[in-house]
Amino acid sequence: METPKLNSLYQQLILEHYRSPRNKGELEDGTVEVHLNNPVCGDEIRLQLRIEDDHIADAKFVGQGCSISQAAVSMMTSLLKGASLAEADGVAARFTDMMHGDEDAAKDKSLGDLRALAGVSKFPVRIKCALLGFEALQKALKESHAGETH
Ligand code: ZN
Known about the structure:
Sufe protein. Chain: A; 3-stranded antiparallel beta sheet
């Protein structure tokens, strides 16, 4: 069986994020933390956010696993630092559309570097890898909302 290849420029961008992940480390003053793993591939992500006034003031992650899972969370945190929670929700929905093969989503500039992962939608076993960071994000946003005291 022939394995389709990701566009090589995109592949470089993915590897670059994998080798030099952005926002990797512990967030000292985070307000919400979510730990998720993908047992099929062995990917693990612990995402920490500091949410202030309906914005993601800071985002960091700790993780290990395949290049797709780690590059995706690196790209996601760089894109969403400073974004409003509504924007973050929108990007998560758009990225999920792209992973389900939506070609318009794959051209959406609001996804930034994440568009490099569009080719992953052709590899069903890897989609879960690409979505892991966003699953953590969506869970964190939900928990943060539920944790509001007023
Ligand atoms: Zn993986």
